[in-house]
Design a protein that fits this description.
The complex is a heterodimer of chains A (about 290) and B (about 400).
Chain A: H1 2-29, H2 35-40, E1 44-45, E2 53-54, H3 57-88, H4 91-106, H5 109-128, H6 139-163, H7 167-175, H8 180-191, H9 193-208, H10 212-217, H11 229-233, H12 242-251, H13 259-288
Antiparallel strand pairs in A: 1-2
Helix pairs in contact in A: 1-13, 3-6, 3-9, 4-6, 5-6, 6-9, 7-8, 9-13, 12-13
Chain B: H1 2-35, H2 41-45, H3 58-88, H4 94-111, H5 115-128, E1 143-154, E2 160-165, E3 180-184, E4 190-194, E5 196-197, H6 200-207, E6 221-222, E7 229-241, H7 247-271, H8 275-283, H9 288-316, H10 320-326, H11 345-353, H12 358-388
Parallel strand pairs in B: 5-6
Antiparallel strand pairs in B: 1-2, 1-7, 2-3, 3-4
Helix pairs in contact in B: 1-12, 3-7, 3-9, 3-11, 4-7, 5-7, 5-10, 7-9, 7-10, 8-9, 9-12, 11-12
The chains are: A mainly alpha (about 290), B alpha+beta (about 400).
Chain lengths: ~290, ~400
C-alpha cells in the first residue's frame, strides 16, 4: 500500500502529461489550427468571429514582459537581502526579519493582485504620470506585484545556499585582509553560486506560472505584436499572459468543445513545458555544479 | 577606499532588506485602511449580493472549510505514505534505486508546476472525466445516486404538482385521469392528490365560475396537453460519476496542489529523526514496519503536523485552481451536497476586486483581512505546536 502512495506521484505526472498531450492533439486536429501558425503567427485572438489567429508568441511575450519586470525587482533585492541576513545581520535583527519574510511568503496571491490593482497602479500613475501614460490595466504594476511575491522565494533559497558555505572560506578571506564586503561578495557568493542560480530559476518558474495577480491587474488583451515588437513589449499597456488567457477562457464556462476550449489546453501545455524546463534546469544546476567545500 | 565600499554595501543591504519589510507594512496598511469600515458581522454571515453594503462571505467560508477537509483527508495520508516509502524503505537494487531517484526528481518537478495547470487537470480528470468514454458529461452523468427525478406540472389553480419518474432520461409523463401526484403548497406542505383530466371547455367553465373565487374546484385539474418540467431533488449524500464541478472535485484538485509540499515536508521531518532511535527499535527485535509505525512516526509527527498545517494554509489561499474548476463565480448559497457548486474565500475576494465599483474594493479588502486572520491563526497554530511539543529526540 505504501508503494501505491509512492507511485501516486509518478501517476500524477503521467496524468498531467497525458491529459495535456491528448487535448493539445485535439487542438491541432481542428481545421482552423496549424502547428506552424501556432509557432510563428504573431497574432492571438481566437475569440474573433471570422479572423481567428492562433499564434502563441503574443501570449509568450506578455508572460515574458511581466516576468522580466518581476525578476528585475526580485532577483537583486532577494539576493542582497539574503546576503544581509546571512552575513551581516545581528541575531536579533535576523529573528525579526525572517518571520517577516515568512509572512510575506504566506500571503495569498489574490492579495498581491488586489494590492497591484488598488495601490500600485494609482501610485505609479500619481508618481510617474508626467512621464508616460499608464493604463489602468498594465503590465508594470502586475510585474512589480509578482516581483514582490517572488522576493521571499529568492531570499530564502539563496540564504540556504549562502549558509551552507563553511566558515573556513570566510575566515580565509578575512585572513588575507578582506573586508566583510570582500568576503561576502567575492568569496561566499561565488562559492554558493549553484544554489543561487537554482533559486533564481525557481523564482522565474514561479513568476511565469503566476495567475491571480495578472488576472486582476494586467488585463485581458493580448499584446499586439503585429504592430511591431515595441508595441507588444510596452509595459504601460494592457497585456495578457498565458495564465491570464486560461483564466479568461475557463471563467466564461466554455464547455462546448470548440477551438477556444482546446486553445487553452495548448497554452497550458506551453506553460507546463516552460516551467518544467526551468525547474529541471534549476535542479540540474544545483546538483551538478554543487561545489565541494572540503 | 575598500572600507568605503564596505560601508556602502551595508547601506545597500539595509535598503534592499528594508524593501521587503516596507512592502509588507504598506500592503497590510493599505488593506486595513481600505477594509476596516466594511468589516462587519454581516460580512461573515451574509451571502454575496449586488449591493456592496450587504455582501458577505458565508458561502465562501463554508466552501473553504469543505475543501480544506476533503483536501486534508486525501492529501495527508497519501503524502505521508509516499514520504515514508521514500525515506524509510530505501531500495537496494539498481533498478529500484533509479526508480527512487526518478520519484524524487518527480516530486521536485511537481512542486514547481503552476497551480493553474493543476486546475485544468482537475477539471479534465475529476470534474468532466472526459478521458474515460461512456461516463456522460457532468451535467448528465452516467451514474448518480441519491437523486429522485420528478415531473412538475402546474394545475389549473396554479398549484405545483409533482409526479415521480424513474430516471433522468425517462420519457415525459403523460397525464392520465386518476393518477396520483403530490401537491406542494407554498409553505412546503405536501399532500397526495388525484389528478383529474378535463377537456378544455370544462376547464374554462370552471375558471369562469364566480361562486368559487379560490379555485377550489380547480385543484388537481390538468388539461390533456399539459407539459411537465423535469426537476430533481438531491439528497445530502448525492454522488454522481463524473464528479462535476463540485466540492469533491475541488478538494481533489487542491490535493494535487499540496501533495508535493506535504511529501517534501514529511521527508524532512523523517530525516530529522536521529538514526539511534531507529537502530534501538531494530535492536529490540522490531520489524521494519513496526519500527516505522511505533518509533519513527511518533518521533516525527510534530514536524509532519507543522508542515502539513503550513501546506494546508497555502491551499486555503489558492484561488487559481478553484477558479478553473468552478467557472461561475457568483455563488450565493451554501453547497448542499458533495457535487454542488461552491466558492472559496480567495475566489470571492477576486470576484469583488475585479468589479469596477469602489465600494466592492473596500469589501474585498475586508475579505482579505478575514482571510489573512485565518491564515495567521494557522501559522500561529503551527508555531505553537512546534514550541509545545518540542521534545528532544536524542
Amino acid at each position: 500500500m505504501l508503494v501505491a502512495c509512492g507511485l501516486f506521484s509518478l501517476g500524477v505526472t503521467l496524468v498531467i502529461v497525458l491529459t495535456l498531450s491528448i487535448e493539445t492533439y485535439h487542438f491541432f486536429q481542428l481545421d482552423e489550427v496549424r502547428l506552424w501558425d501556432f509557432l510563428t503567427d504573431l497574432q492571438w485572438n481566437p475569440l474573433l468571429g471570422n479572423e481567428k489567429h492562433f499564434g502563441i508568441w503574443p501570449l509568450i511575450c506578455g508572460t515574458l514582459v511581466v516576468s522580466t519586470i518581476a525578476m528585475l525587482l526580485a532577483l537583486p533585492t532577494g539576493l542582497v537581502t539574503a546576503i544581509f541576513l546571512s552575513e551581516y545581520a545581528p541575531t536579533k535583527l535576523r529573528a525579526v526579519l525572517k518571520p517577516t519574510l515568512e509572512v510575506l511568503a504566506g500571503v495569498p496571491t489574490v492579495v498581491f493582485g488586489f494590492f497591484a490593482l488598488t495601490v500600485i497602479t494609482p501610485a505609479l500613475g500619481w508618481g510617474l504620470g508626467w512621464l508616460f501614460e499608464l493604463n489602468t490595466y498594465n503590465a508594470l504594476s502586475a510585474g512589480i506585484a509578482v516581483g514582490i511575491m517572488c522576493i521571499p522565494i529568492v531570499c530564502s533559497l539563496s540564504e540556504d545556499a549562502l549558509r551552507a558555505v563553511p566558515r573556513s572560506l570566510r575566515e580565509g578571506a578575512y585572513a588575507v585582509g578582506g573586508t566583510r564586503f570582500d568576503a561576502s561578495v567575492k568569496v561566499v557568493v561565488p562559492a554558493a553560486l549553484s544554489g543561487i542560480v537554482s533559486a533564481f530559476l525557481l523564482a522565474i518558474a514561479r513568476a511565469v506560472g503566476e495567475t491571480m495577480i495578472v488576472a486582476l491587474a494586467a488585463g485581458a488583451m493580448a499584446p499586439r505584436l503585429h504592430e511591431g515588437i515595441l508595441a507588444g513589449l510596452d509595459p504601460t499597456r494592457e497585456t495578457q499572459t498565458m495564465t491570464g488567457y486560461m483564466v479568461m477562457i475557463f471563467f466564461g464556462d466554455v464547455s462546448n468543445y470548440g477551438p477556444e476550449y482546446y486553445s487553452s489546453y495548448a497554452v497550458a501545455t506551453t506553460l507546463f513545458l516552460m516551467t518544467l524546463a526551468l525547474t529541471m534546469l534549476g535542479h540540474v544546476v544545483r546538483v551538478r555544479f554543487r561545489e565541494k567545500y572540503d | 577606499m575598500r572600507s568605503l565600499r564596505n560601508r556602502l554595501f551595508v547601506v545597500v543591504c539595509v535598503l534592499a532588506t528594508g524593501v521587503a519589510a516596507v512592502v509588507l507594512v504598506v500592503l497590510l496598511g493599505a488593506v486595513l485602511y481600505k477594509g476596516w469600515d466594511h468589516l462587519t458581522i454581516g460580512l461573515l454571515t451574509n451571502a454575496p449580493s449586488r449591493r456592496a453594503s450587504e455582501a458577505g462571505l458565508k458561502p465562501a467560508i463554508v466552501g473553504s472549510i469543505y475543501l480544506f477537509i476533503i483536501c486534508a483527508v486525501v492529501a495527508i495520508p497519501i503524502g505521508v505514505g509516499a514520504a515514508i516509502l521514500m525515506e524509510e524503505f530505501p531500495p537496494r537494487g539498481r533498478v529500484m534505486r533509479a526508480l527512487h531517484r526518478l520519484v524524487q526528481l518527480n516530486i521536485t518537478n511537481l512542486a514547481g508546476v503552476p497551480s493553474i495547470v493543476y486546475g485544468i487537470i482537475g477539471l479534465t480528470i475529476f470534474a468532466n472525466m472526459s478521458m474515460f468514454p461512456g461516463l456522460g458529461t457532468s451535467l448528465s452523468p452516467r451514474y448518480a445516486m441519491g437523486v429522485t427525478w420528478y415531473d412538475e406540472f402546474y394545475d389549473e389553480a396554479g398549484n405545483l404538482l409533482r409526479v415521480r419518474t424513474d430516471r433522468r432520461d425517462a420519457p415525459a409523463t403523460v397525464v392520465t385521469n386518476g393518477m396520483t401526484a403530490t401537491l406542494v403548497t407554498d409553505t412546503g406542505v405536501q399532500e397526495t392528490i388525484t389528478v383529474r383530466v378535463m377537456p378544455i371547455e370544462a376547464i374554462d367553465a370552471l375558471h369562469d365560475d364566480e361562486q368559487d373565487p379560490s379555485r377550489q374546484k380547480l385543484a388537481g385539474v390538468l388539461s390533456p396537453d399539459a407539459e411537465p418540467q423535469r426537476v430533481s431533488e438531491k439528497a445530502w449524500y448525492y454522488v454522481q460519476l463524473p464528479f462535476g464541478r463540485g466540492v469533491l472535485a475541488g478538494g481533489l484538485t487542491l490535493m494535487l496542489v499540496v501533495l508535493p509540499i506535504i511529501i517534501t515536508v514529511t521527508q524532512e521531518a523523517l530525516r530529522a529523526v536521529p538514526n539511534t532511535l531507529r537502530e534501538g527499535a531494530l535492536a529490540c527485535g522490531a520489524t521494519r514496519w513496526q519500527m516505522v509505525w511505533k518509533m519513527t512516526l511518533p518521533a516525527a509527527v510534530q514536524g509532519i503536523m507543522t508542515g502539513s498545517i503550513l501546506a494546508m494554509s497555502r491551499a486555503i489561499g489558492e484561488a487559481a485552481p478553484v477558479l478553473i474548476l468552478c467557472g461561475i463565480v457568483y455563488i450565493s448559497f451554501l453547497p448542499a451536497n458533495l457535487m454542488d457548486d461552491f466558492t472559496v474565500m480567495p475566489l470571492q475576494i477576486y470576484n469583488w476586486a475585479s468589479r469596477p465599483q469602489e465600494a466592492f474594493h473596500g469589501v474585498a479588502a475586508a475579505g482579505i483581512i478575514v482571510l489573512l486572520v485565518v491564515l495567521l491563526s494557522f501559522n500561529a497554530l503551527a508555531i505553537f505546536i512546534r514550541q509545545k511539543f518540542n521534545k528532544p529526540l536524542s
